[in-house]
Amino acid sequence: TPRVFSGIKPSGGLTLGNYLGAIKRWCDMQGPAFETVFCVVDLHAITVWQDPADLRAGTREIAAGMLASGIDPTRSVLFNQSQVHEHAELAWIFNCVARVGWMNRMTQFKDKAGSNAEKASLGLYAYPSLMAADILLYHGTHVPVGEDQKQHVELTRDIAAKFNHDYKVDFFPMTEPVIEGPATRVMNLRDGTKKMSKSGESDMERINMLDDADTIAKKFKKARTDPAPLPETLDGLKDRPEARNLVDIFAALSDSTPDKVIAEYSGAGWGQFKPALADLAVDKLAPISTEMRRLLDDPAEIDRILRDGAEKARAIAAPILAKTYEIVGLLR
Ligand code: TYM
């Protein structure tokens, strides 16, 4: 069976972008069609400074968010990356396969390193190589992610292809990015040209999965929009990024499409649409945050689930790493 792999960094709390762009879609992929492996990528988080206590808490929060959203540890493998040392080992092999020029083209590195790339960690630079290792260590064939990860998944294919070519094997599969649905790029609520992220400076620009109902309502109410009402068709949202974003969020939360949302609300003003969106969001997110809080009351239980998951992950990963070492010619 084809195998799904995806991951989330525990660098700050979970956002609505992570939920709609990733976790919600992962839940839908659980079932007979795929084997599903989901990972809290703590080794990726430390490519930028993380306070150790925050990292521990963040890892549990992401795991709790995944569980509360419907990732089922009896149907999926759910674990944190650092408990399966094979990730770091395969990443080293891939550091020797990938080319410096490939890394230089990664837009996420440029965004994160900013104007002073000399001061970025070496880990941040090599980040995509570890991400390729995450996926290929499980021979992952399908990687459901948001739009921002597309370039990294394409690089994973380049690494697999060069490895197979250099060693004259047909060992690593060509991974497909799965970027689908109305919310593959949820935007910042204060600036419709920037994506919603865990680390943006103002809390008003994002919905956190642990926000309470009042906070969610307030953030949508204060979300930036233009003054015009919603148009007759989706075309009318072309140069209205903030409006388009709210329509997309509405569609994703209600398992609908932007076209249907526009059909229902065409002509509506923001005084009507925003409260409807806030109600919908609270309706869908409150049960998740309640369950997250319940889970976070018992950190030992979360740790146990992650440990069990790591054992299952290692059962898949260890033979693939062993075979890789053999192909490369590393003596055992
Ligand atoms: P991360 O932790 O930044 O985000 C986790 C997932 O959430 C998606 N996402 C969004 N989707 C839509 N709109 C947004 N505003 C938004 N913000 C985040 C991301 O696209 C991602 O799917 N490098 C990855 C983690 C990773 C990984 C992997 C993913 C490490 N190894 C292997 C897939 C496979 C990252 O930083 O995601």
Give the structure's gist in a few sentences.
With 332 residues, the protein is mainly alpha-helical.
What is the topology?
Layout: E1 3-8, H1 16-29, E2 35-40, H2 42-45, H3 52-69, E3 76-80, H4 86-95, H5 100-104, H6 107-113, H7 122-136, E4 142-144, H8 150-166, E5 176-178, H9 213-222, H10 241-253, H11 258-265, H12 270-296, H13 299-328
Parallel strand pairs: 1-2, 2-3, 4-5
Helix pairs in contact: 3-12, 4-7, 4-13, 7-8, 9-12, 10-11, 10-12
Report on this model:
- By secondary structure, this protein is mainly α.
- The protein is built from 13 helices and five strands.
- The strands form two sheets. The chain has a three-stranded parallel sheet with strand order 1-2-3. A two-stranded parallel sheet has the order 4-5.
- Strand 4, helix 8 and strand 5 form a beta-alpha-beta unit.
- Helix 9 runs antiparallel to helix 12.
- It is globular.
- Tryptophanyl-5'AMP (TYM) binds next to strand 1, helix 1 and helix 7.
- The site of tryptophanyl-5'AMP (TYM) has 27 residues, from strand 1, helix 1 and helix 7.
Distance between the termini: 30 Å
Task: Write the CATH architecture name of the largest domain.
Answer: 3-Layer(aba) Sandwich
Mean pLDDT: 96
Report the bound ligands by name, code or SMILES. tryptophanyl-5'AMP
Instruction: Provide the number of structural domains.
Output: 2
The side-by-side strand order for the widest beta sheet comes to 1-2-3
Secondary-structure element order, N to C: EHEHHEHHHHEHEHHHHH
Shape: globular
Using the coordinates shown, work out and report the CATH topology of the largest domain: Rossmann fold
What proportion strand?
5-15%
Give Rg in angstroms.
21 Å
Q: Mind telling me the CATH superfamily name of the largest domain?
A: HUPs
Given as residue ranges, the uncertain stretches (5+ residues, pLDDT < 50) are: none
Helical coverage, percent range: 40-55%
Main sheet record: 3 strands, parallel
CATH class of the largest domain reads Alpha Beta
DSSP helical segment count: 13
- What structural class do helix, strand and pairing data support? mainly alpha
